[in-house]
Amino acid sequence: MTAATTKRFLKDYPEALIAGVGAVFVGAGVSMAAGYPSWASLLTEVGEELGVNSGELHDLAALAQWSIQENGSATRVRNVIKQQIGVERPIPPSLEIISRLPVKYIWTTNYDRLVERAFGAVNRPIDTISGAADLALRPTPGASRLFKMHGSVERLDDVVISTDDYELYRSKRGAFLPLLQAHLSSMSMLFLGISFTDPNIRHVLSLIRESFASAPPEHFAIVRPPQRGEYKSEAEFKARSTQHRLWSRDLKRYGLMVVEIDDYAEVPALLHQVERSVAGRRVWVSGSWPPEAGADIARAYGVAHAIGQLVGERGRDLVSGAGVVVGSASIAGFLDALRANGGWDLQRRLIARPFPQPIPGASPDRAQWAALRSELARVAGVVIFVGGMKIDPNTGATVVAGGVLDEFEAAKAASSFVIPIGSTGGAAAQISDSLIGSKIDVSGLNAMRPTDEELKALARPGISIEEIVKMVSEILARIDNRA
């Protein structure tokens, strides 16, 4: 059952992300993986002051409530949160991957700033909504939105932690609820770092149940069963394991399919597979052809245009460095396909990273170009090479473009599937020659190149553009079905 659910998750959730309807819910386990305390650990000192063992208390909101009543204010509880949650911890690998996925909406009940910092590390904008009033603010164009439905460490006067806060949630923060319910009804939500001991998650699950008494939409939850080393006795471990098993089965009532793992270290590997599946739907057409070199420029343009059109017709996304000949041709073909199908979803389906060109006499920024090549290779699971020639500034002769060869190395480093059209010459021909007879896999999940026969056919002099498109189409279809 677990293997079947994992397989389904790795198929359905990337498809939701590609369609723009994949969302994420970040639970307490993600913060704990970064080194932040659990709820029980967070309130240990507070419990000791009240003569209560927080590790044995299931209603931790009540513990916070009792502290507030005893001290006459929430200052003591807020100081504990500031001291333990206000410090910066290393960003966990799972959030590093999430920050690179095409996720527009993220929900969390955590107070820390891990998600914001993960997005900041890759210079990706994110709007943080931590209070009901923030929902009225105009969103930043192109930014993802992070809904911190229980508040944030920067605004400790407005966090949800006590019994009163939960009971009065609808009156104070109720504006979050219809939006969360809308996302739960229209999107596929991935729940990370949740467990049956997390009091916050019960609050969220009740919202799902409230909206969908029957036939709730399907979501996914990556969960880890209790481990023997976490408990003092065998009896306690067995009791917790039984609770976890029953809770996992109960999640089906909320439309959550459980993807069970043995260790949190498995989460980044799973998310990396999701990232590569998303990338696999994106095709980068790499190559170059100097406009000054009239020979064969029409063929290079024609091949790139036809491949761009194929990418659009097959419902894939186009990745491009927006070069003068090959880049512009592939984009033009891609746009033709979108026009023909009545779709102009360019914001989502066209991923362009133009290479900044230096002014005459100046040298390009090699480090910046290398970073762009790495990014393009990372977001594209398939890289098709067309041509790859340039003018040598010293001799004026047409030579193989070293930058396209660098893009081939970047594609290999990112484990992308590479398809060189050797018949277009230049770097593409050189890449094709290097792949024929190589030990790089041609089948299975780790496949990264066409077969030798396909490479030789694509490199055959005189092969027509129609034949190239047909063969590339067949290769792309095979990639979709590889197992």
TrEMBL record:
Ranges where the NAD(+) hydrolase ThsA Sir2/TIR-associating SLOG domain occurs: 266-478
Instruction: Please state what the protein is called.
Output: SIR2-like domain-containing protein
Q: Sorted alphabetically, which InterPro entries does this protein's record hold?
A: DHS-like_NAD/FAD-binding_dom, ThsA_STALD
Q: Pfam families recorded for this chain?
A: SIR2_2, STALD
